[in-house]
Fold these 2 entries.
Entry 1:
Amino acid sequence: MFAGRIQWFSELQSTNDVVATLAEAGAAEGIIVSADAQNAGRGRFGRSWASPHGAGIYASTLFRPDAAVFRLVTLAAGVALVDGIHAATGLRLHLKWPNDIVTDGTAASRKVGGILAEGGAESDGRPWVVLGFGINVLSASLPRDLTTRATSLEHELGRAVDRGLVLAECLAALSQRYAQLQSGDRQAVIADWRDRAASTLGRQVEWNDGAIRRGIARDVDEHGALLIQTDTGIVTIISGELQWL
Ligand code: BTN
């Protein structure tokens, strides 16, 4: 769905902003905006996303999913990115809910990439989603203060990585996973997400819903919400900030 629809920039503020502007102007789904550098790259919760020149993949695409699968687009994208990275490099990474791409499920796990999904709706209620993703490719993509919590493909592999190939494989996987979701096969997407998140499920998590709460991350439901086992029963988290202990 993406073929021939990539717009490449040397530098811009945020690829998500460019795609959101195109979405509001009525662009068709499947456009891709990618940049060599972002000067205002953002992560979840308004955090900045370091995006130095040529050091990572900074890309966003537009989806106009059926309302029934809207909330699963970001899980499908996580599966696609893990698979795309594996196809391009041989490196098998893992997912941490909702969509961090991490080295494994241990306490020493480091983050390699992340997804920022931002959305809106047309006047007829049909949703659109700007799906932005950042992947650290060179170690230079990491701010110095993050080097204990983040890592890069080249650092993990100990060799040079072809950024263009990683992007191409990720886009191919993204296109295929989105088609799978839209065709109604959401169970396969969720099963593959579980498989790639298995090393992080079973971990203790902490969150704040007015008071600090703790539990064990057990599973995701059919909408992609996280199910946490607590002393008082299963709690369902749709979004929010979790600390993985
Ligand atoms: C996160 O883990 O917090 C999500 C990070 C998402 C970063 C990407 S880079 C391309 C796109 N443009 C942005 O400004 N952010 C996303």
Entry 2:
Amino acid sequence: MLCFSYWAELANRQLRIMPELISFLKKNEINNKVVQVAHRISSDYQHQELVLIGVLKGAFIFLSDLMRHLGIPVKIDFVGVSSYGSGTSSTGTIKLIKKIDIDLTNRDVLVVEDIVDTGLTLAYIVDYLKTLNPKTIKVCALLDKYERREAAIKIDYACHRVAEGFLVGYGLDYNENYRELPEIYRLKL
Ligand code: IMP
Ligand code: MG
């Protein structure tokens, strides 16, 4: 039998690890929003085969949930960029660190991003994807964090809009931490 001190220690560790996290979106709220956006995408792309391009690393959980709620055939690939150092705002310098492997020529492409802040990363990715000659490119973001927007980019599908703050969990990280949390939290800095 596990003794009380074990559970006390575990609770203590949790408190020490996560004191700065404030609940933002619960599991069922995330799920409802993902299902709703998936239905919109499925009805807009009926009879078309869509290529989902996930933006590494943050979008991997969102992409995997989203694609399982789409009622249409999809192919997936990932693009990798680095723009964030270890802080909470962009360094402004964006580098392509993983290119697309599959042929996008004349394909309908949907970029799947975790969160759009200034929009500079997404603008860079869309510019890169355009060079691969797709038929169409649209954008789907889990979170549209709009207050600091600098690039004029259109987010065709957004699950949730938020003005500001730094969010973690459900794939989103702070210094590579918290991605594994099943819910989304606001980080108190
Ligand atoms: P942008 O270029 O300023 O739009 O930054 C977009 C990228 O920064 C996203 O792909 C995220 O990886 C990261 N990012 C921006 N805001 C947050 C946040 O609140 N939490 C976690 N990552 C963020
Ligand atoms: Mg990202």
